Amino acid sequence: MGQEIELYYKPWTLFAVMQSLGLLLFISGMIYRFSFYFKGRRKSLYKKPDYLLMLKAIWRYVFLQKQLAQQNILRWFAHISIFYGFIGLLMLSAIAVALETVIPADSSFSRYMLHGQGHNYYKAAGDFFGLIMLLGLLIAFVRRYIVKDSQLYTDSTDSIALIILLTLVITGFLLEAMRISLLPPSPELQYSFIGYNLAVIFRGISGIPSLATALWLFHSALNAALFAYIPHSKFLHIINSPLEIALNVSEERMRGDLYI
Ligand code: HEM
Fold first, then answer.
1. Smallest Cα–Cα separation from 216: which of 204, 227, 208, 226?
2. N or C: which end of the chain has fewer CB within 10 A?
3. By CB neighbour count within 10 A (0-12 exposed, 13-18 middle, 19+ buried), where does 172 fall?
4. Which of the residues in the chain have pLDDT under 50?
């Protein structure tokens, strides 16, 4: 995440090709998945949607994830950390894209975010969200592979999903550390509190710019792979679960199943 003066070469054309391919595979995978839902012959909605009830359920089961807290508090903590870490990074990316596209470069917001204190806060927020995501992912790993919690059934798609996310976060921090190692020391760099501390690994080593370019490509290829993989893995629940929760709660009094 982030908008930088380029300290190492970034092959943007290759980036665009990879991301477009990832997006294309994501869209076609989703169409394939959702086509099953429309094959059902029975009526799927029996009532007029109750939007207020739906919003309440989304708040309770998507934003607070109470159903997980009721099962196991560590599981809830791991999931909520991954969830909000990811959303935080996504929002920061959205701010970066907005600054590059729609927000005028001479506006005070742009100046604050690109050259003022806002830039430092932006960097600190990136490390903060990355860190909580890392924490959640590590707990998920321990519960699945070391403690082998009896509540969890792990298949290969879970492993791939966790490994992709963990690799994205770790390579992200390494990329940040490489960038910082290429800059002259300055107190402002400390806002990237993780990358700043990891930068000692790379400082003074030759060949860091080419290594950073390779890692940047790998990091963005992994992002495209994540997109392509969503429809075929348990990542699909990012999209499915909120929909199911909202629809179930609205239909529930007739069907008497999950939630409420
Ligand atoms: C799901 C997708 C992604 C995740 C989870 C992710 C995660 C992270 C994390 C945790 C960091 C370190 C903290 C930070 O600087 O914010 C990071 C840094 C970075 N990411 Fe990503 N990232 C993703 C997608 C991307 C994409 C598509 C690009 C574009 C090439 C990208 C480029 C970078 C760069 C250049 C850095 C270093 C920032 C710096 O030098 O300060 N990331 N990423």
1. 208
2. C
3. buried
4. 2-3, 260
CA-proximal residue: ligand 1, atom 8 (nearest) = 172
Pocket of ligand 1 (CB under 6 A): 1-2, 4, 15, 89, 126-127, 130, 168-169, 172-173, 175-176, 179, 192, 195, 216, 219-220, 223, 226
Q: How far is the CA of 172 from the centre of ligand 1 (A)?
A: 5
Number of residues in the chain: 260
**74 C-alpha vs ligand 1 centroid, how far in Å?**
26
pTM of this prediction exceeds 0.85: yes
Question: What is the model's pLDDT at position 257?
Answer: 53
Q: Can you tell me the distance from the alpha carbon of 103 to that of 92, in angstroms, rounded to the nearest whole number?
A: 15
CA distances from 121 to 8, 92, 99, 129, 138 (A): 23, 11, 15, 12, 25
Give the residue carrying structure tokens 């592979």: 145
Handedness of CA 161, 167, 170, 171 (dihedral sign): negative
Q: What is the pLDDT of residues 77-106, one digit of tens each?
A: 999 999 999 999 999 999 999 999 999 999
Q: What is the pLDDT of residues 57-68, one digit of tens each?
A: 999 999 999 989
- Amino acid identity for residue 208 in this structure: I
Q: So what's the architecture of 47-252 in CATH? A: Up-down Bundle (1.20)
pLDDT at position 126: 98
Q: Tokens for 88?
A: 């935080």
CA-proximal residue: ligand 1, atom 1 (nearest): 223
Closest residue CA from atom 4 of ligand 1: 168
